[in-house]
User: Fold SLAM family member 8 from Mustela putorius furo.
Amino acid sequence: MFWIWVVEGVCWPLGRRMALWSLWSLLLWEASSAQVHGQVGGSVLLVAERPSGFQVREAIWRSLWPSEELLATFFRGTPETLYRSRFLGRAQLHSNLSLELQPLESGDSGNFSVLLVDTGGRSRTQVLQLKVYDVVPRPVVQVFIAVPGETQPPKTCQVFLSCWAPNISDITYSWRREGTIDFGMEPSDLFTDGQVLRVSLGPGDKSTTYSCIVSNPVSWDLATVTPWESCHHEAAPGNSSYKDVLLVVVPVSLLLTLAGLLSAWHPCYSGKKQKDVCNDRVTPETENPLV
Assistant:
């Protein structure tokens, strides 16, 4: 089908019209693009905004980036979405000319444009930027006990809380202490873009919990820990801290490893019994000469 578009008395073929429209859309890209967020596996609605009194005669939806593709059209009252693109079978054009995409995939992020033409030949171009995010998984929080310093008050414990969300990017980390309204912490106590929090605890913080909140524009999750339990476990009588374990285990492991290597290299020089065994191993060979 060969489309003809008449605007202000000028008759343009469809090919030239599309090329001019694409160039105009790219010029408007940075200046007027609206951001839309979507979630992997979900749906998103790209809304075509129409001014008051704008009676649409034609509408054309396109993908501008990362690839330029024709997605949907509305011509002579008939919608059409069966165009070869990465959204084939996943695009639906609604009666208000908004475009719905579902189910969303992680590679669907990009820029989209809709061209609306009214019955008087006037046109309106709108550019939208779609960003698709993964669902945020539950984070993992680890508690690390700091080595007590000379200036540390007695009966206190300083810990570092480390938060990590596996296999995901474009996320924000924040912390919340139980019983407080403010989600933020002092900037001096945050490290690695908010993933690590330094906390000083006292006897009054035995039941205090801290939550790490991981979020992106479409989802969030959290994990909660009670850091004083780690302090109490390390300071309990009869329990060695990880520093004491390292001071004992590492040297002993090294000595055992060296002893094993020496025994493997010189099996006949590690004692009288070993010498007798080696002599016994040689004797049969000397008593049975070859004929």
Observations:
- The chain has three domains: 4-133, 140-235, 242-281.
- Residues 1-12, 19-31, 235-250, 267-291 have pLDDT under 50 and may be disordered.
- The chain has four helices and 18 strands.
